[in-house]
Amino acid sequence: MIKQTLKLIVILAAFILTPRILAQDNTSVKFTFPKGHVIDFLLLKRKANSGPALNEYARAAIAEARALGYKGLGGFNIPRNPIQSNIHPETLIFGSWPGNFADRQQALKDLLAAVPTLYAKRLDVWSAFFMINYEITEDITFEVDRGKIQVLTSYWKDDTDKFATFKTAFLKKVNQYGGSVKLNLSNPQSPFGYTYTPDFTTLTEWNTQEEFDAFLKSSRLMDISGVKQINQFYLEPPAPTS
């Protein structure tokens, strides 16, 4: 399954995403999210025996998406069971569209006009397809270490004031237990039919599994009365290119 997931990323990179990872070697991977763009977070789970459908999806969508300004920004595998979640995607892939949310919505309309079967073709390939859009108002660059533990955590709020207190306490606890915050994002949108809009998403990095386990044990004791839902995944950078 992991080999299939890695192959999926390679195929998507070649046909659709054209990854723009800034730097990559045997020890680290660096990503950039450019100012003045909307970033797609795609959480995907591929169907078995969907190779021909994936090729067809790429063939139908590649030129149109690129013409509209889409660029791939790389991503992660999600090979391990979720830490806390009711879903288990296989990959997290980043993509970039120029402009703001309104521009992103128009680009989707234009893509659908050019490829009316876009949604159906996606369902031929993926059994899970969650899309989160974030407006990037300043350049964001972050780097992850292949030898460390990366964790993506997303929270949905239930009470605004309590959630704000929880978020502050959560980030303080990450620092307390030796974690490093690589990315914080909020205020997402999702297109109709793909809604997945956590109120706060953070990517943290940990020196060891033991370090993260200690944090996780403590974080589960926090007051979650202002929290509605959590999804939390181990991430794994793709293998370095030769």
Can you walk through the features of this model?
With 242 residues, the protein is α+β, with helices and mostly antiparallel strands. Helix content is 34%, strand content 34%. The chain contains 6 helices and 11 strands. It has helices at 2-17, 51-67, 101-114, 118-125, 160-176, 209-219; strands spanning 23-24, 28-33, 37-46, 71-77, 91-98, 126-136, 140-145, 149-157, 180-186, 200-206, 227-235. The strands form 3 sheets. The protein has a 4-stranded antiparallel β-sheet. The radius of gyration is 18 Å and the shape is globular.
Any key phrases for this structure?
alpha+beta; disordered N terminus; four-stranded antiparallel β-sheet; 34% strand; 242 residues; 6 helices
